[in-house]
Task: structure prediction
Amino acid sequence: MNYEIHEICCIGAGYVGGPTMAIIADKCPNIKVNVVDINTNRINAWNSNDLSKLPIFEPGLDEIVKRTRSRNLFFSSDMESAIKNADMIFISVNTPTKTKGIGAGQASDLKYVEACARQVALHSLNHTIVVEKSTLPVRTAEVIKNILESEQIWQKENIEKKTFDVLSNPEFLAEGSAINDLENPDRVLIGGQNDNAIEALSKIYRNWVPDHKILRTNIWSSELAKLTANAFLAQRISSINSIAALCEATGADVREVARAIGTDSRIGSRFLDSGPGFGGSCFKKDILNLVYLSRHFGLPEVANFWESVVSLNTWHQHRISKLVIMKLFGTISEKKISILGFAFKANTNDTRESAAIQICKDLIEEGAELIIHDPKVSPDQIAIDLGLAPLPDKNISSNKNLKSNGGWRFTKDKYSSFIGSDACLILTEWASYSDIDWIKASKIMRKPAWIFDARSIADKKKICDANLLFWRLGDGS
Ligand code: NAD
Ligand code: UGA
Result:
C-alpha cells in the first residue's frame, strides 16, 4: 500500500480549510494541494485577483496565498477530480449544533461530514487517508469509516481497489492569529490506528514542525482532546468574567486580580482577559457537544458542570446590556449609542456568536438607535446577525416612530458614531479603539455621556479628563 503523499484534497474552504492548506502548500512545495467547497462564491473569492477580497481576513494570509496559489495551491468546485487524485483528504467542513431532532441545541450536526465521507467513498481511487480536521464528537471516526466501507458495497466493481485509513488531526488555530498558530503550533495532534498513515501525516508536518511537538494518540483521545481544549479555554473566560462581576460589587479590579493569579505558574497568565463574553464559532458549540456526550454516556453531573460555563457566558452578556440601560437612567428608548466593534474578537471579520450580537439585540429591543462601527465587518453581515435591516438613511427618514422602535445604522468613521450619542460601548478590542481622541468625541456627544469599555482597551484618565463618565468591566475601584 502506498503512503507517499503527492496530492492532497481539502473539503471545506472556510476559516480552517483555507489558511491550513495555504500553510501546507507553502511549507511543502512538492505537494499539490486542492481545496474544494460546495460554496462557489467562496471559491471564486479565494481565486480573486484582488487579495483584499479573499473570503477570510487573517493577518499574513494574503501574502501566503499570493506565493502559493496556482503554484501548488488550487481552489476549485470540482470535488470529483480533487478526490480522485488525492492520496490524503482533509475533511474541514462546518459542524454546527443541531437545530432540530434528537440532541437539538447541543449535539453536533454531522450531515456535512457525512456528505463528505460519501463523496470520498464514491470518487476516491486506490488507498486514501482521510483526515478529520473538523472538530467532531468522540467516535466520529468510526462513523466515517463505516460510511466509507459501506458505500463500497454499492460500487462492487471498485471494491478491491479502494482502501481507507481514518485519522483525527484536530485544528487548534485561533482566528486573528491563525498564520502564526499554524506556523508555530504548540502541538500537532494526530490520532489513529495505523502507524503508516500516522507517519504519512507526521511527515508533512515535519516540514516545519519539530517532531517532539507532534503528539500521537489513539483516535478517540484525539477527538476528545479537541473538545476538551476548547472547553478549558472557555471555562477560564467564564471564570474570570464571573470574578469581574464580583470585583464591581466589592471594589476590586479584575485586571489586578487576573495579574495576581496569573503569575502563579500553575494557573498561567493567558486567557484571563475579562471581556463581553466569549464568542466565535466554536467555544459554545464544542462545550454543548461535550454536554450532550456526557449526558449520552450517563454522566449528568459532568454535563451540568460544563453547561454552566455557557450559561454564565449568556448571563454575562445580558448583564452588560442591563448595566448600560441602568446607567442611562433606566431607559435607552430613542437614545443614540455608539457601538465600537462587532467582530467576536479583533483581527478577524468573523462575527459568529459574537457577544456584540446579543448585546446589540438587547439594546435595540429597549428602543435604542445604535451606530455600529467595525473596521472589518460589513453592514450586510451585521444585518444578517441582528436579523434586522439598518434604519433608512437619516437624511431621507422622516418617520420618528422608527427611532423609538430601536434600530441600527453602520458607519465607516468611528468619530461620526459619536455625534449626538449618549453613550459609547466598546465590544471588540481593535487596536484603533485604544487611541481615540476622547476630547474630540466628547465635544459631539450629548451630556451626560458614558463610555462603557467591555474590553479594557480605553484610557480611563483621558476619558475622565474629557468630561465623560466611565465604566469598565470588572473595575469596582
Ligand atoms: P466554515 O463554515 O468557515 O467553513 C466550512 C466550509 O465547508 C464552508 O465553506 C462550506 O461551504 C463547506 N462545506 C460544507 N459542506 C460541504 C460539502 N459537503 N462539500 C464541500 N464543502 C462543504 O467553518 P470553519 O470555521 O472553517 O470550521 C470548520 C471546522 O473546523 C469546524 O468543525 C470547526 O469546529 C473547526 N475549527 C474551527 C476553527 C476556527 O477558528 N474557525 C478552529 C479550529 C477548528
Ligand atoms: C478558539 C481557540 O482559542 C482555538 O484554539 C480553537 O482552535 C478555536 O477556538 C476553535 O476550535 O474554533 P477562536 O475562537 O478563534 O479560537 O478565538 P479565541 O482567541 O480563543 O477567542 C474566543 C473568544 O474568547 C473571543 O470572543 C475572545 O474575545 C474571548 N476571549 C479570549 C476573552 O474574552 N478573554 C480572553 O482572555 C481570551
Remarks:
- Residues 11-17, 37-39, 42, 92-95, 112, 115-116, 134-135, 171, 173, 175, 281-282 surround nicotinamide-adenine-dinucleotide (ligand 1) (CB under 6 Å).
- Residues 395 and 409 are 13 Å apart (CA to CA).
